[in-house]
Design brief:
Layout (H helix, E strand, L loop, with lengths): L2 E7 L5 E5 L5 E6 L6 E5 L48 E8 L21 H17 L3 H7 L16 H15 L10 H5 L2
Antiparallel strand pairs: 1-2, 1-5, 3-4
Length: 193
Protein backbone atom coordinates (compact mmCIF):
# COMPACT_ATOMS: atom_id res chain seq x y z
CA UNK A 1 0.00 0.00 0.00
CA UNK A 2 -0.48 2.71 -1.33
CA UNK A 3 -1.46 2.54 -4.99
CA UNK A 4 -0.40 4.44 -8.07
CA UNK A 5 -3.55 5.25 -10.06
CA UNK A 6 -4.09 6.46 -13.60
CA UNK A 7 -6.77 9.08 -14.13
CA UNK A 8 -7.74 8.87 -17.77
CA UNK A 9 -9.54 11.89 -19.18
CA UNK A 10 -11.67 11.03 -22.18
CA UNK A 11 -9.90 11.59 -24.52
CA UNK A 12 -6.44 12.22 -23.16
CA UNK A 13 -3.30 10.87 -21.65
CA UNK A 14 -3.42 9.38 -18.16
CA UNK A 15 -2.35 11.42 -15.16
CA UNK A 16 -0.89 9.47 -12.23
CA UNK A 17 -1.62 10.07 -8.58
CA UNK A 18 -1.41 8.06 -5.34
CA UNK A 19 -4.18 6.74 -3.10
CA UNK A 20 -3.79 5.35 0.40
CA UNK A 21 -0.69 7.25 1.51
CA UNK A 22 -2.33 9.09 4.42
CA UNK A 23 0.92 9.73 6.32
CA UNK A 24 2.07 11.96 3.44
CA UNK A 25 -1.10 13.07 1.66
CA UNK A 26 -4.20 14.86 2.92
CA UNK A 27 -6.11 13.61 -0.11
CA UNK A 28 -6.78 13.95 -3.81
CA UNK A 29 -8.09 17.05 -5.61
CA UNK A 30 -8.51 18.48 -9.07
CA UNK A 31 -5.73 21.07 -8.79
CA UNK A 32 -6.83 24.57 -9.77
CA UNK A 33 -3.35 25.37 -11.11
CA UNK A 34 -2.27 22.08 -12.72
CA UNK A 35 -5.87 21.42 -13.91
CA UNK A 36 -5.45 17.67 -13.35
CA UNK A 37 -5.91 15.22 -10.47
CA UNK A 38 -3.19 15.67 -7.85
CA UNK A 39 -2.31 14.71 -4.30
CA UNK A 40 -2.17 17.33 -1.55
CA UNK A 41 0.69 17.28 0.95
CA UNK A 42 -0.36 16.68 4.55
CA UNK A 43 2.52 18.94 5.66
CA UNK A 44 2.02 21.96 3.37
CA UNK A 45 -1.70 21.48 2.49
CA UNK A 46 -0.75 22.31 -1.13
CA UNK A 47 -0.66 20.39 -4.40
CA UNK A 48 2.43 18.15 -4.43
CA UNK A 49 3.21 19.06 -8.07
CA UNK A 50 2.83 22.85 -8.35
CA UNK A 51 3.23 23.53 -4.60
CA UNK A 52 1.00 26.59 -4.92
CA UNK A 53 -2.61 25.41 -5.00
CA UNK A 54 -4.23 25.09 -1.56
CA UNK A 55 -7.65 23.43 -1.87
CA UNK A 56 -10.60 24.03 0.41
CA UNK A 57 -11.99 21.13 2.46
CA UNK A 58 -14.87 20.79 -0.01
CA UNK A 59 -12.51 20.15 -2.92
CA UNK A 60 -11.09 16.87 -1.59
CA UNK A 61 -12.42 13.92 -3.55
CA UNK A 62 -13.76 10.76 -1.91
CA UNK A 63 -12.39 8.34 -4.49
CA UNK A 64 -13.50 5.20 -2.62
CA UNK A 65 -16.59 4.46 -4.76
CA UNK A 66 -14.87 5.33 -8.06
CA UNK A 67 -11.58 3.40 -8.14
CA UNK A 68 -11.69 -0.39 -8.62
CA UNK A 69 -9.13 -3.01 -7.64
CA UNK A 70 -6.60 -4.19 -10.26
CA UNK A 71 -9.02 -6.72 -11.73
CA UNK A 72 -11.76 -4.10 -12.07
CA UNK A 73 -13.68 -5.40 -9.05
CA UNK A 74 -15.24 -3.23 -6.37
CA UNK A 75 -17.36 -3.65 -3.25
CA UNK A 76 -20.30 -1.82 -4.77
CA UNK A 77 -20.99 -0.70 -8.34
CA UNK A 78 -18.53 2.02 -9.30
CA UNK A 79 -19.83 5.56 -9.46
CA UNK A 80 -18.63 8.38 -11.68
CA UNK A 81 -15.65 10.09 -10.21
CA UNK A 82 -14.20 13.49 -10.85
CA UNK A 83 -14.68 15.42 -14.03
CA UNK A 84 -11.55 16.85 -15.56
CA UNK A 85 -10.96 20.61 -15.74
CA UNK A 86 -12.98 20.78 -18.98
CA UNK A 87 -15.94 18.90 -17.49
CA UNK A 88 -15.17 15.56 -19.14
CA UNK A 89 -15.60 12.29 -17.21
CA UNK A 90 -12.47 10.38 -16.23
CA UNK A 91 -11.82 6.68 -15.70
CA UNK A 92 -9.59 5.48 -12.88
CA UNK A 93 -7.46 2.35 -12.67
CA UNK A 94 -4.73 1.30 -10.23
CA UNK A 95 -1.53 0.49 -12.11
CA UNK A 96 0.73 -0.61 -9.25
CA UNK A 97 0.97 -0.91 -5.51
CA UNK A 98 3.83 0.78 -3.72
CA UNK A 99 5.42 -1.13 -0.86
CA UNK A 100 6.26 1.47 1.76
CA UNK A 101 6.25 -0.86 4.75
CA UNK A 102 3.76 -0.37 7.53
CA UNK A 103 1.96 2.94 7.20
CA UNK A 104 1.88 4.99 10.38
CA UNK A 105 5.52 4.78 11.30
CA UNK A 106 7.04 8.20 12.03
CA UNK A 107 8.58 9.94 9.03
CA UNK A 108 11.89 11.51 10.05
CA UNK A 109 10.67 11.28 13.64
CA UNK A 110 7.46 13.17 12.85
CA UNK A 111 3.80 12.13 12.68
CA UNK A 112 2.19 14.99 10.70
CA UNK A 113 -1.13 13.14 10.46
CA UNK A 114 -1.70 13.08 14.23
CA UNK A 115 -4.58 15.23 15.44
CA UNK A 116 -5.61 15.95 11.84
CA UNK A 117 -8.74 14.83 10.05
CA UNK A 118 -8.10 14.34 6.34
CA UNK A 119 -10.05 12.70 3.53
CA UNK A 120 -7.18 10.27 2.87
CA UNK A 121 -7.26 9.14 6.51
CA UNK A 122 -11.06 8.77 6.43
CA UNK A 123 -10.92 6.56 3.35
CA UNK A 124 -8.20 4.40 4.91
CA UNK A 125 -9.96 4.13 8.28
CA UNK A 126 -13.29 3.21 6.64
CA UNK A 127 -11.57 0.29 4.88
CA UNK A 128 -9.71 -0.63 8.09
CA UNK A 129 -12.93 -0.71 10.13
CA UNK A 130 -14.64 -2.83 7.46
CA UNK A 131 -11.73 -5.28 7.58
CA UNK A 132 -11.78 -5.36 11.39
CA UNK A 133 -15.50 -6.10 11.33
CA UNK A 134 -15.24 -8.88 8.77
CA UNK A 135 -12.34 -10.56 10.56
CA UNK A 136 -13.55 -9.92 14.12
CA UNK A 137 -10.38 -8.08 15.13
CA UNK A 138 -10.84 -5.33 17.74
CA UNK A 139 -10.77 -2.01 15.90
CA UNK A 140 -8.61 -0.35 18.57
CA UNK A 141 -5.84 -2.92 17.99
CA UNK A 142 -5.68 -2.18 14.25
CA UNK A 143 -5.88 1.59 14.77
CA UNK A 144 -2.95 1.29 17.19
CA UNK A 145 -1.03 -0.95 14.75
CA UNK A 146 -1.29 1.73 12.06
CA UNK A 147 -0.81 4.61 14.55
CA UNK A 148 -3.91 6.36 13.23
CA UNK A 149 -6.90 7.97 14.91
CA UNK A 150 -10.43 7.92 13.53
CA UNK A 151 -10.93 11.22 11.69
CA UNK A 152 -14.47 11.61 13.00
CA UNK A 153 -15.20 14.89 11.19
CA UNK A 154 -14.63 13.19 7.80
CA UNK A 155 -16.28 9.79 8.35
CA UNK A 156 -19.91 10.55 7.55
CA UNK A 157 -21.09 9.15 4.23
CA UNK A 158 -17.89 7.28 3.39
CA UNK A 159 -17.87 4.00 1.53
CA UNK A 160 -15.17 1.31 1.48
CA UNK A 161 -12.29 1.64 -0.97
CA UNK A 162 -11.82 -1.87 -2.35
CA UNK A 163 -8.12 -1.38 -3.28
CA UNK A 164 -7.33 0.01 0.18
CA UNK A 165 -9.30 -2.82 1.84
CA UNK A 166 -7.41 -5.44 -0.20
CA UNK A 167 -4.04 -3.98 0.78
CA UNK A 168 -4.97 -3.83 4.46
CA UNK A 169 -6.10 -7.45 4.22
CA UNK A 170 -2.83 -8.54 2.57
CA UNK A 171 -0.68 -6.67 5.06
CA UNK A 172 -2.56 -7.86 8.16
CA UNK A 173 -2.54 -11.48 6.95
CA UNK A 174 1.22 -11.26 6.28
CA UNK A 175 1.88 -9.72 9.72
CA UNK A 176 -0.38 -12.25 11.47
CA UNK A 177 1.79 -15.04 10.09
CA UNK A 178 4.87 -13.64 11.83
CA UNK A 179 5.74 -14.08 15.52
CA UNK A 180 4.03 -11.75 17.99
CA UNK A 181 1.47 -9.83 15.92
CA UNK A 182 0.27 -6.71 17.80
CA UNK A 183 -3.37 -7.61 17.21
CA UNK A 184 -5.60 -10.59 17.89
CA UNK A 185 -5.34 -13.41 15.37
CA UNK A 186 -8.98 -14.44 15.25
CA UNK A 187 -10.21 -17.76 13.87
CA UNK A 188 -11.33 -15.97 10.73
CA UNK A 189 -7.89 -14.40 10.26
CA UNK A 190 -6.06 -17.67 11.05
CA UNK A 191 -8.13 -19.39 8.35
CA UNK A 192 -6.59 -17.09 5.74
CA UNK A 193 -2.97 -17.63 6.80
Amino acid sequence: MPYLVDACPLPGDPVRFVIGNWPEHAGVVLCGVCRVVRNVSIVTSRCVKCDTYTPTDDEFWDYAPSIPYFDGSSVEPLVDGLLDADGNPMLFMPVSTLNVGTLGRPIDGRTPWKERDTMEMAIFVMALLAFAGEYGIPEAQLLRYYNIDVPFSKMSGRSVSWPIYQDIRAQIIARAGQPGPPFEVTERLAADL
